[in-house]
Amino acid sequence: MTHAVVLLSGGLDSTTVAAHAVREGYEVRGLSIRYGQRHVRELDAARDVADALGIPVVEVDASFYAKLADYSALTNAGEYALPQHRGREAMGGDVPITYVPLRNTFFVTLAAATLESWMLGLIEEGSAVPGDLNPAILVGANAIDYSGYPDCRPEFYDSVVEVLRLGSKLGTAYGVTMEIEAPIIEMGKADIVRYASDLGAPLELTWSCYEGGDRPCGSCDSCVLRAEAFAAAGIDDPAMQER
Amino acid sequence: MTHAVVLLSGGLDSTTVAAHAVREGYEVRGLSIRYGQRHVRELDAARDVADALGIPVVEVDASFYAKLADYSALTNAGEYALPQHRGREAMGGDVPITYVPLRNTFFVTLAAATLESWMLGLIEEGSAVPGDLNPAILVGANAIDYSGYPDCRPEFYDSVVEVLRLGSKLGTAYGVTMEIEAPIIEMGKADIVRYASDLGAPLELTWSCYEGGDRPCGSCDSCVLRAEAFAAAGIDDPAMQER
Question: How close A232 gets to chain B, by Cα (Å)?
Answer without folding.
Answer: 30
